[in-house]
Amino acid sequence: MIKASATLRNDYSTISNLARSTSEPIYITKNGEGDGVFMNIDAFEKREQALELRAKIMQAEERLNGAKTRSIFEARKELRERAGTI
Fold it and tell me: Looking at the whole model, is its pTM more than 0.70?
């Protein structure tokens, strides 16, 4: 959904209600070009949670695909060595 910045400025409550009812981002244009995105806070927080989950899944997939991992003992040893160099 695309709206002009003037619409946001002149009729904020309509844009806010639209964002809340659709739970979708509304792209704001200025002079016919993309300028920003407006979205409901609940939709934004859900999107952030989904992105965090995606990042965790990608980390897990890397481990499953053979990326090097450390045991808790190796991690502690490495942290102690790093702390000794500070």
Answer: no
